[in-house]
Write a structure and sequence with these properties.
Distance between the termini of chain A: 53 Å
Oligomer: homohexamer
Shape of chain A: globular
Number of strands of chain A: 5
Order of helices and strands of chain A: EEEEEHHHHHHHHHH
Largest sheet of chain A: 5 strands, mixed, barrel
Number of helices of chain A: 10
Strand order of the largest sheet of chain A: 1-2-3-5-4
Strand content of chain A: 5-15%
Largest interface: A-B, 39 and 38 residues
Helix content of chain A: 40-55%
């Protein structure tokens, strides 16, 4: 990259390394075109930059010792605040292993279901929470390991679950569609704060409270702010979120006690298993067994000959 | 019922009581028109008649002491060997609590799926076993208690499971449709011999071998007779039937180790729970909890207010 | 009770029966002096009166058919809104089996600990929640069965637990006193809404959400309203409340992960066991075994000879 | 080994290595006299040769480039099809770690019990299955690890179990001797197809069906072919084979429900533990503990001082 | 029974009732000849007499009011202190359901094994403990319910276990015969003090210490008194007694860690199951299932058709 | 160290190495002043010296080849038999990681409680056992790993537990103080023989009998020697010691069945957890999680920010 003194450059890149010592402080980022660029930081800018994340960096070219030009960071923004959905969707495939479907398609799919929620209370609450977390939602893995552990995994998993709802309601028509749409969209949303999206570490709040209760607190808070705190819908929604791990020993403080809560658990479990199984079978020869699969009770599965 | 001496009567009725002593032996049957008719039996006819079953009785009117006319059994046939599917479908609703869908519709539904099996090996084996048990299949409950414990429950449960297969294959296209159709139709077929259809008692073979292994033996035998014993299809089918209780402690000697086997377990479990839940919720007021439901972990479920 | 026409009477009594039919609607209450008094109700007053609760009834003496005078309800208030703490403390002993210590003494004890909380955040949050529920807190049992199942049990149990904290801190001085005081006072507060105080039934919210999460929601809400939502203290407090059942299979969505959370679980467990044991041993002869005690693993305990 | 051109050689040897590439294909075998001999193969002979197995190779000496003589395989037979029992018994000790008793003695022992079965149905079925697998039965280990994991282990384990039957019948005379002999001889026979005898890997059928059900299928098939399928004896035999792991979580689809089935489980368990214990104690000094023993609950055992 | 004044009568009888009030105190006993005899007691003799036990009563015929003669107790002895083994053996069959073998034969059997112990330490300890409890040993049931719950059950169970030892040693010759004889004879001896022999109630010591530790204390005490406390034999014996319930959750503080300890557990388990099974099958028709059997995992067992 | 020929030296040191071969036999010890001294041994003195222990060595300076002076061992005594409590207390800190409180203070603390036992039976038994083991008691770790695994850990753990008793009795006054003091002092005393104090290996008796039963045997023996074997106190004491692991699967043959036994389990559990937690938290930064802690269910704990 050729630099001109005192010119401002806008660079979109993924943080590759952060380097600091007594007398230096900089980051190296890689761009879409695979250029590696070093940007100098002030020490108090250090904590704004996280390994593995993509930012738009605004930097000034300044002269260093011996006439060398270097870039000096002015400001930075998370890339999801800068690009359109379409642009972002294309960008992530350059930098990450992304979910099997492009980000824009996952987004379109999820918002279709979101807009099909007819019940006003459920619609308003779900939309308000969705909009707050919308950007991070499509950049987050569903887990640190086990299943959907790639960027976008959280939203991809959510979309697949949504696709299973209608067939079930056709067979068991007593189930409430709006509750299932709303709870499915929200059920894992707090994983955004439970698991640090970049390095996949659990956060302090994630370990001490957990995404089930964190999301219930979130729903409760939004419901109160909208004046819906005493509605049947909110109670049902909170129960579904709390109970969607299905069993006390999986961390749900209550077991599912409504049909919708029970189904949410089932489609969550099913998708976490069958998506992994599909991915592993793809890498397995016909007539052979897979390696042990953690999320499938540590069993090896057989891929039949066609 | 007015009787004429020496006339032969054909009576279709359900056995209400069987009475025998040192000097008497007879059965009382109830007809579709709610008439209660007593038919005398020879002692060696006693074991042909089972409480609660429907037969076509052929009987002769003969004179008893003091000029009274009585009916004397000539022969009898299970009613399913005498009536057309349509007639039988109508008849069972007179005598039993039947599944929520008429027998003819269940039958039509199941046979539609049966005919959609394209793989020749799976198609031939499934059809041969189906045809052997066809009549009893639609008269049998799925269980002695817990779920689908009404006449026709076995076939109704099978049909609902079949309806869930296509949606899953749409989301997880690596799954084999023919295997799923075949194994679903066959998975509980041996309950016909495991549980005595009328009084719901387990048979000796049911207790000592169980329907999972009984059905595997059946598939193995038919496969051998058709020359298919060493095919991949037969191995997959036997594995699915053996493993469809999902866990060793539920009586499967092997856990599911193919995607199809895993899905069979899931849709079997799901239907056994959601069908019961739907039935219980129908009898529960909105805003109330149900009674404890055995098949749902002995939990009470809540019916939300609309 | 002698009545004068058109006079207003103020009666404090416990509801003994509620009677209503097409043409009548009344309640019979019993007073401290064991007088049984019938009060006529309008149909729309029916839902204000709960079996077993104590109210101050304001009623007018009116003439019924044939010159008989009857009392007609004007209005009513829960007795805890009318009497002083001292008066209430004396009254409950007339009407209920109360905890082994008088209500005023339990109250004085608990407020002593409440006032010893030095940390401002913990002090403000705990006091605000305490004051909201103060009245019902001293009238509530701790459970529907098992332990402390008498009126006042909730506050009595809380006080005993508070008394165990200081000795533990003396031996393990790294533990935080303020967190332990605050969390102990709050840990079971939501039982007031989880269990209906009079008939001891679980409420809908109690069954679907449970007092652990209900209380966490409450702390979260109050903390937000006071601007403390992101403090270490609030996170610690929420974690302690969520985890105080100690194990996932006892309904805590997270296990204790701080020393204070672990101790809260221990002293809660210990008090629930040793208080019951003390009560049962009192009714057991020396040299004999007690009956099976539910809360003590269904064991029988031995009372040694002195 | 000196070779003469165009002469045919018969060599009995154990396959040491199989080597193939674009332009070569051969195997090296080792003989009883510890001679290592290379034999050239056609590519289509490759799959007939298994590592570690002993064959009689018939090979022709032919001229290769530069006047070198090499052996060219004509045909081969498993050695058990060529040698007498006595010869085979001697041979295996040269090539394998064999069970503690010579093969001929194990064989004589087992056939003595086989011939003591008086019940005609049990005798015919057991003999027919035994004869089908006779050769491999004495060459097979009982397991891939844990217990009796040496060549001949399967038959040695079977013989020891047979020796325990009579003493039990003496103490509990209601037990059926013929059922116990027959089921003991057959109970693990299908391990021959469950575990590949040479490398100790589980086969596909072994993993998906398992030796309990495989052996039940075998008994069922033979019983049908002999016209015995509806006899009490066959039902008892199938139940014993299915249930001989004793518990659902050990892979038996049914728990033992006859005295004979229960005893079969006990003597199978006992022999698997006490034989291993004896072998490990032999390598342990008096007054010392053994290493952890897998098959004994991972416990260390103590060898007392004499 | 005709009485002569002032004559002394010796009566052997089983206590049928004990009656006492302000002004009366007597017992009614039944004799071998089915005579019911009332004997007057002093109040301080009351505690010497236990319901259901057999004594030799020495009584004096004295005159009561109105010339009636009554018997007045002089003294009494447990019948086992008065009769020879042969006489006692015959007597118990008149009064109790006794074990399936006569008492004298059980005694002869057990003493044969006792005398076969060659190791001096084990022989002396076992004999000393045996002689202390000899009399009660043959009068005691093995349990209050479940298995061997008849008079003599304890010794009968011990004898059957002894019979199984030699066959096992023949197959697994590394096991120590003397240890197995000694530990088998002693393993349940303390049930005499754990369970009150007459009414089958657990004693205080039985509940708080248990027969495993009680017997270990007994062996330890006798070993110390004989100067054997530091021998290998005594350590092995104590370990076997402590561990003979096999698993911690069955009340053994240590699991078996010697071959002899492991076998003791197995033969104890086996005999407790197979003896009950034999008894229950005797009362079951061929081709039928038994009732649920507690000691057999609450399973129903099948009795095959011959 | 300067040696003079034929002079006797008294050296207190900890054994650092023991060296022996065909022609040499000696030990190197390190003194308080960090001097390393080699002392020659006769071969028959070899087994008197244990690695890691501290002794007073009495040695004679003798001439070796070439005029070199060496020390030749005359005799040795465990240092605890030579020094006063005060001297020993100071010495152990030179050689070992000792408990957080000086030995003399632990000793003073424990003896204070020992002297507060008023009941004569409990006092005499506890004192007699204490005095027998007094010296080793203060030199022993409480465990080979997990908790209190440093020298003096056993007595330190005992003292902390004693400190918790009085507060509990204040809250639950029905508990017996003397029983709690006595059982707490004795409960782990047999760890001295269960675990070899120096290398932390389990002894043969420890593995086969365990400290719970070993200590019960000890109490039983001392009680018998004092004529107290049939007292209520001794039964209570034995029950408390046996049951102090609380659950069968933790190795207690009986669960706690008295209030005192239950409390002993609780304070033992609590101290084993909270002491470790305190130690680990000391090494953890605020705002961080600890490593996994074995004794705390393998959980990581959080250290809050102040």
């Amino acid at each position: 990259m050729d630099l001109n003194e005192n010119k401002i450059y806008k660079i979109i890149g993924k943080v590759e390394s952060i380097n600091s010592g007594a007398h230096f402080c900089n980051t190296t980022v890689v761009t879409k075109d695979n250029e590696h660029i070093n940007i100098k930081l002030d020490f108090d800018q250090l904590s704004d930059v996280m390994m593995g994340k993509i930012y738009e960096f605004t930097a000034l070219a300044v002269v260093k010792l011996e006439d060398e030009l270097v870039l000096k960071l002015k400001s930075l923004k998370p890339v999801e605040d800068v690009l359109s959905a379409q642009e972002l969707s294309e960008l992530v495939n350059h930098f990450y292993v992304y979910a099997p479907i492009p980000m824009v398609d996952i987004k379109k799919g999820i918002e279709t279901f979101l807009n099909k929620i007819e019940n006003e209370i459920l619609s308003k609450i779900t939309k308000q929470i969705y909009q707050t977390h919308e950007k991070q939602f499509y950049m987050h893995p569903a887990a640190t390991k086990f299943h959907h552990a790639y960027v976008g995994g959280l939203s991809y998993h959510t979309l697949t679950m949504l696709k299973l709802i209608d067939p079930f309601i056709e067979v068991y028509p007593y189930l409430n569609r709006d509750l299932l749409y709303a709870a499915t969209i929200l059920h894992d949303m707090s994983k955004i704060s439970e698991i640090s999206g970049v390095d996949g570490e659990y956060t302090k709040e994630g370990l001490l409270i957990g995404h089930l209760v964190m999301q219930t607190l979130d729903v409760d808070h939004v419901a109160k702010s909208l004046g819906y705190e005493n509605t049947e819908e909110v109670l049902m929604l909170k129960h579904m979120i709390l109970s969607h791990h299905g069993q006390l020993h999986f961390g749900s403080p209550k077991k599912p006690q409504t049909g919708e809560a029970l189904l949410l658990w089932f489609i969550d479990t099913i998708d976490s298993k069958f998506t992994v199984l599909g991915e592993v079978l793809e890498d397995t020869a016909e007539g052979q067994f897979t390696q042990m699969i953690s999320v499938l009770d540590k069993m090896r599965f057989y891929k039949p000959k066609k």
